[in-house]
């Protein structure tokens, strides 16, 4: 018959194997939660003498794996926004989103200027950040854009002008988002009936399809007066909301 000591070692070895089979702590995901819990339960079921036979290295790994699971399950602490000029509830979540994801920054260390009009160049820079700042390739026909700027998903205000400093309208923003969606190989065929908006006749002919898509995709909404305001200048807060909706509803 085998002696008692070797049986003790066998029991401890099984637990050590279960711990060794776990990924390294920094590779742990929530899918490993049950396996980590099972390894801990098996270890806790050992006698003190048996636990002493499980190497310190294995015990430390198990503790580190548990700490990683706890970290993954912890709700994200919302970043404290440094801006003192945010007064409307409707844009708080969107501004927090674009700030946390480094898509938009403040106009100063303590101001976001939510109601300021956005320029065309600024909006494209935000799309560039959303895309992960790729290397700019190809040449544009625009004579008013620095060669190293990224304006790949954009149309000009004329054949040769992009007007980066020009204020962007809501329909221009919709058009850029639709082009960006196409660039990302996403389906952009959705169409909403925009004739229900009281100012539908103000939509530029070239932007009709873009606004139908933006409304269908819930990127743009009408205001309290059921106005789409297609040619109104888009504000920084509206841009933040559109970027958040695009990232969470369309790209997913």
Question: What labels would you give this structure?
Answer:
45% helix; 9 helices; elongated; 252 residues; mainly alpha
Query: Sheet with the most strands?
Result: none
The separation of the N and C termini measures: 61 Å
Determine the number of helices (DSSP H or I, runs of at least 4 residues): 9
**Helix/sheet category:** mainly alpha
| Topology order in helix (H) and strand (E) letters | HHHHHHHHH
Helix content: 40-55%
| Residue runs with pLDDT of under 50 for 5 or more positions | 144-151
Query: How much is the average pLDDT?
Result: 86
Counting DSSP E segments of at least 2 residues, the number of strands comes to 0
Q: What fraction of the residues are assigned to beta strands by DSSP?
A: under 5%
Rg, nearest Å: 28 Å
Helices and strands, with pairings:
Elements: H1 4-20, H2 33-44, H3 48-52, H4 56-73, H5 89-100, H6 120-130, H7 170-183, H8 208-216, H9 236-251
Helix pairs in contact: 1-2, 2-4, 5-9, 6-7, 7-8
Could you please describe the fold and organization of this structure?
With 252 residues, the protein is mainly alpha-helical. 45% of the residues lie in helices and 0% in strands. It has helices at residues 4-20, 33-44, 48-52, 56-73, 89-100, 120-130, 170-183, 208-216, 236-251. The termini are far apart. The model is unreliable at 144-151 (pLDDT under 50).
Summary of the model, kept short:
By secondary structure, the protein is mainly alpha-helical.
